[in-house]
Amino acid sequence: MGPTIRQIFARLRQRRSRGERVFLRRVYIPLFLLPQLQLTNSPQVNRNKKSLGLSFQHAAGVEILHKLAAEADILVENYLPGTLQKYNLDYATLSSINPRLIYASITGYGQTGPYSNRAGYDVMVEAEMGLMHITGSRDGPPVKVGVAVTDLTTGLYTSNSIMAAIIARGKSGRGQHIDVALSDCQVATLANLASSCLVSGEKDEGRWGTAHRARSTSFLAGKRLGLMLWNSIDCPIQSL
Hints:
The protein is α/β, with parallel strands linked by helices. The protein has helices spanning 2-11, 35-38, 41-46, 59-71, 91-97, 122-128, 149-172, 182-188, 191-200, and strands at residues 16-21, 49-54, 74-77, 102-107, 177-181, 216-221, 224-229.
């Protein structure tokens, strides 16, 4: 999510700063302390970034972030809705400091709604929103995708939204608050499998493994008859 977005803009040669809240009462083991991940995960998601640790519970930390926000183009956060408001780091506060700020909020289930106060994680959303249901062998159990694909696609959707907000700001002179949810992005990337269920009202056909059903569909448009063919690896198209 956040790391993916910042990585994309870092590759576009934008100046990226990665701020992290310092938890004073908890102890975490950073991934970079694990030798086997040091070579892959941390450099992969944090390259081209500058890091700064701040405590939101201290006025000095909040003041530093306010100064950064005053000159920033984009801020990305993934706290539960309302969490940053008590630290005066919410969109309303920061946009009053910098009206041109584009403020992207990423959550599991959105800023509003019955699940808005729930934390969201890739594997949870993959299961809840149907991706695991359609992934795996035909007669096997649901399977998680090999990488955190929901996190990655959410990062891509957010990056596109930020770029659209930059274009809009060029006309209006003002930034905006972008609300992105893992659940929304995962449903969107179910693509035709989701839309076919919504349109037909019928239950999907489950998992197909590495195969894809071969379909032939004819449709009549005016006086013209068209033929569309879908091919799968295990069902080659025969010569017509």
